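Problem: given the chain below (509 residues), write out its structure.
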Amino acid sequence: MKPVSQTSGETDAAARQRPQRMGELATLPVFFDLRGKRVAMAGGSDGAAWKAELMAAAGARVDLYEPMDDLGEEMRTVLSLAFAEGRIVHHDRPWAFDIFAGAALAVADCETMAGAQAFFCAARDAGVPVNVIDKPAFCQFRFGTIVNRSPVVVGISTDGAAPILGQAIRRRIETLLPATLTGWAKLAAKVRAEVMDRLEAGPLRRAFWERFSDEAFTRRAPDDVAEADARRFVSDLVATPQAGGRVTLVGAGPGEAELLTLKAVRALQAADVILFDDLVSDDILELARREAKRMLVGKRASRDSCRQEDINRTMVQFAKAGKHVVRLKSGDVSVFGRSGEEIAELRREGIPVRIVPGITAASALAAGFGVSLTHRDRAQQVRFVTGHSQKGDLPDGMDWRALADDHATTIFYMGGRMAPRISAMLIEHGLPAETPVAVAANISRDDETRAIGRLADLGAIVARIGVDRPILIGVGRVFADCEAQALEGFEPGLSAPTGETSRLRAKAS
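Solution.
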């Protein structure tokens, strides 16, 4: 017996040393099936009306015990409603000890603490879980805040500490869950048996459900075509396990994680492989699916970089292995991102590809400086121009006379090293040397630096900020009035101390 005892002791010790997999829970979230079950209820207030409607909508028979004269207007309205399965039956009398027999739950709204205690004790003695509305001391369960996309239901609880916070969380979740999710959840129930029967557990089923979930969040309400597509995809996976491979080109925006679109977040959370630029922030990558393989494929001037051909080959390789590849690019996918070459290669290989646009850096520049890039009195057009070529010089064939338009706003991307030449070429072709310019490095990030000045001083401004940082240059009269909004009280990052911006401003003036 001693070895058994010793083994048991060792097992107990190991269990004690094992890290806790779940943090402390204030309450246990449980989804309770009320269909066909009886609820004993007392109270005629608006709060009671909402709870009665909620439980009837879940399929319960709610027996409401309350004198007719004590029913509020909201409760009278709820009593007239028709529900798909549940119903509310009104009994014109006060509650008594006999109402709890056969009840699955007991709910009441009581004006006094004495009344709440009496209802609580009676229900508890009858062995029925009880909730007295707005009386936490007399609640064995709580309702929480609900996001209803039934059969998808999300419950939110703050353990009674902050109901308004729970409502705020609900509103944010509702923006993430489209109303059409109800239809997709019902479609999932229809095709589930076929998926379980035809696809092996593991990668194949996951490939199906990942694609299905992606459709649920990116397409409109499902129809017969969507169901046919789902069943066809099952057949494709049976015939070719790699059929689930696809690529999504995702714009990561200028850098701040909160500037991601909802669609971009959903793509990141459904990815198997993420190929990302080195301008993509860690905060954005934190939003991605934990299990996703992440590969840095950044291309930066004056640094060792991945060749575009290698990036294309990597995307094709993973997609043909049945993976969902997200190609994550800073800014917007379609602005100076060489996405055209990637799309062409993927289509040549027969790989499905989708595009999720992002906020381009020019939009973040305008927001940071508090200006509109177009202004009826100052700029009737806006141009996005690349500030360097593959040769490391200004791009060939640029129409500098057209760019030197005093009634336009021009944004130069990746133009840090070329700033002196950009300034000289624009002035040479007729743009006044006094034309306002706005420069930002690491825009929308914690270490963002901004400066304003004249076109004649553009090279000096950029040199002071640092040409090795990702720099965006705005040229045009729309930046004339941005000083107060953009620079007053602005706190640059560590690479530019608090006084740096004002010194840049003074030099530029």
